């Protein structure tokens, strides 16, 4: 933990994790009498693997990331929460995020009794990296959503590298949508920077939002520190097994390619619409667009049985809607409904 002593709460540097029965013995046996489980023989009478070893091995192969750099959580939100709990002192430390961005960052800061600082993007949702750095004085954790939600744009990897070289806190790069993007993941920088944690998920590109599996990609010291404070069995046996089956059985590269193709079709349709005044470029599986009287359009779409997201209340997002890329049939229904508005 020596390399992390500047980033982790001092009182948690030497915390001892709760050691369950499955921590003490990980081999094979015929009689299990160590964990106070019900002896009834079912698929779920035993506790799950607390280390998610099989699932990590498959994810490691898919993403070309060593298993020792993978931490798995009950959705990305648990991962983000644990990072804050591990690094920040309640009622003392400050975390920051870009604005607009994923609203859960502020919620988690509030739940952890932390100060929250918003760093505004310009009207095109771009940043000036020097201006951003100037606002990070005293910040312990800085969240960057990449590609950003709800705007869909990507912040350059070179800017992240520059930031990491100068920022004294922890940079958390939330890459929930990176699998839809041709650009390299910030995970490529993990080996070179002890203050970087990259967060990804199986919810988006891998279609497992209902399973709730998020991950942190970081140096092994970070993985060990997160394992020390997580609940011992944070991912159920059913979730692990279902995820393994889906990862092994589906052609995810083809699925992602189809989603990107549909995103491009939606983008073209929105740009061709006389009602839409601005379509923001997206590297994710959604598109943000500006349309006059967005709330009225939102209500009209819901009357047609089509639900999108009204983002008009967010900073610099007046009269904007965000549409997720659906199936070809769903996207066609949306295009037709918008054209008939």
The unreliable regions are: none
CATH architecture type of the largest domain: 3-Layer(aba) Sandwich
Global mean pLDDT: 95
The main pleated sheet reads as: 7 strands, mixed
Helix-strand category: alpha/beta
| Topology-level CATH name of the largest domain | Aspartate Aminotransferase, domain 2
- The total of helices stands at 11
CATH class of the largest domain: Alpha Beta
Count of separate structural domains: 2
- How much of the sequence is in beta strands? 15-25%
Keywords:
single chain; 341 residues; alpha/beta; Aspartate Aminotransferase, domain 2; Aspartate Aminotransferase, domain 1; 2 domains; 7-stranded mixed beta sheet
Describe this structure in words.
This protein is α/β, with parallel strands linked by helices and 341 residues long. It has 2 domains: 2-249, Type I PLP-dependent aspartate aminotransferase-like (Major domain) (Aspartate Aminotransferase, domain 2), CATH 3.40.640; 252-339, Aspartate Aminotransferase, domain 1 (Alpha-Beta Complex). It is built from 11 helices and 11 strands. The strands form 2 sheets. Strands 1-7-6-5-4-2-3 form a 7-stranded mixed beta sheet, covered by helices on one side. Strands 8-9-11-10 form a 4-stranded antiparallel beta sheet, with helices on one face. Helix 2 runs parallel beside helix 8 and helix 3 packs across helix 4 (104-111). It is globular, with a radius of gyration of 22 Å.
